[in-house]
Amino acid sequence: MTVLVTGASGFVGGAIVRGLARRGVPVRAMVRDAASAPEGVEVAVADLGDTTALARAVTGVRAVVHAAALLGEFGRPAEFFAVNVAGTDRLAQEAAAAGVARFVFIGSPSALMAPDGGDQLGIDETVPYPSRFLNSYCETKAVAEQLVLAADAPGFTTCSLRPRAVWGPGDRRGPIVQILAKLRAGRLPELSGGREVLASLCYIDHLVDAVALALVAENIGGRAYFVADAEPVSVWPTLDAVARRFGLAGPGVTVPAPVLGAGLSVIETLWRIPAVAQRWTPPLSRYAVALVTRSATYDLSRAERELGYRPTVGFADGLDEFHRWVDEVGGLDRLLEDA
C-alpha cells in the first residue's frame, strides 16, 4: 500500500515519511520543491493549489496522509483559507476520484480555540468547534477538518489526528524551538499569573505511531482523535527546566494581565500594516500567549480504544533525545539561526 505524505519537507511530514518507511510502508513524499524532498523514497512535486499536479500525486496510491498546512500566528485570512481549506478540499477530492481508500488529516486542537476561551482540561472529541476562532490558523484548521470528516464515504475512509505542540528531534521551527528562541532573546515574560497551567504535548514519535495505526485501523471513518503524550506537563516549571537544560535563563519579568492585554492590542494593530508584517516577526501574539496561559489537556480514550494508540516516551526521555539531536546539528545557536 503506497502512502502519499504531503508536507514531506517539514518536521512533521518528514518524520511521518521516515517513520512509515522504517516500517516497510512504500511512501511517496509530496513536496513543492524537489530539492527539499526526503531521501530514499519516491517523490511527487506538487502544490495544493495545482489540481493537475495533485491528480498526478495521488495516482496509484492507496492512502494519503495530509500534513501540509500554512502555519502562523499572523497573516492574511485569504492565504490561510487558500492553503488550509481550499487546498485540503482539492486534495481530498482528487484522492477520492483516484480511488484512494484512506485519507488521514493532520489536524490540531487549535481548531477548538476561541478568542475568549479558557482552560480545556481533559476534554474529549465531543467538544464542539467554537463559533469564533482565536486566529485564521485555528479557524482554517477547523473548517478543513470538518471538510475531511464530511468526505468520509464507503471506499474512502477519512479521519483526523489532533496532535498539539508536536516536538522532538528534527524540530527546527516548532513551539519548543520558538520558546527557546524567545528565552535566548529574553523575550518571554512570566505570564502564568501565579496559577498552574497544564498542557498536553505530542512527542513526534507518538504522532508517527498514531499515523501508522490510523492507516490500518477499522471503523474510524469520519472521526477525529486527540493524540498526545501520556502525561501533561506543568507549563511554567517545564519552561524553566528546558531553559536550564540549554543554559538559558528562565522566563523573565512578570507581566500583569491588563498590561499584557494592552500590549497585545498594540502588536496586533502594528502587524496589520503590511510593511511591518513583511519585515519583522511579532514578539508575542494572542495565540502564543494562549498556548502558555490556558490549560489544555486531552482524554486519549478514543485513540487508545479505536486506534490502539499507546504513548510510551516520557517528557524527560524525549527532552534527552531532543537535546542530543540539537548537539548533533551544531548546538542551540546553530539551530536557532533558522528559527
Protein architecture, described:
This protein is α/β, with parallel strands linked by helices. It has one domain: Rossmann fold (3-Layer(aba) Sandwich), CATH 3.40.50.720. Helix content is 42%, strand content 14%. It has 13 helices and 13 strands. It has helices spanning 11-22, 51-58, 77-97, 136-150, 175-185, 204-214, 235-245, 257-270, 274-279, 286-293, 301-307, 315-328, 332-336; strands at 3-6, 27-31, 42-45, 63-66, 102-106, 120-123, 157-163, 166-167, 198-199, 202-203, 223-227, 233-234, 296-298. Helix 2 (51-58) packs across helix 3 and helix 3 runs parallel beside helix 4 (136-150). The radius of gyration is 20 Å and the shape is globular. The model has no long low-confidence stretch (mean pLDDT 90).
What would the keywords be for this entry?
single chain, alpha/beta, Rossmann fold, seven-stranded parallel beta sheet, 13 helices, 13 strands, 14% strand, NAD(P)-bd_dom_sf, NAD-dependent epimerase/dehydratase family protein, NAD(P)-dependent_oxidoreduct, 3Beta_OHSteriod_DH/Estase
Reported for the largest beta sheet, the result is: 7 strands, parallel
Q: What is the architecture at the second tier of CATH?
A: 3-Layer(aba) Sandwich
Outline the low-pLDDT stretches.
Answer: none
The coarse silhouette is: globular
Question: What are the SSEs and their pairings?
Answer:
Layout: E1 3-6, H1 11-22, E2 27-31, E3 42-45, H2 51-58, E4 63-66, H3 77-97, E5 102-106, E6 120-123, H4 136-150, E7 157-163, E8 166-167, H5 175-185, E9 198-199, E10 202-203, H6 204-214, E11 223-227, E12 233-234, H7 235-245, H8 257-270, H9 274-279, H10 286-293, E13 296-298, H11 301-307, H12 315-328, H13 332-336
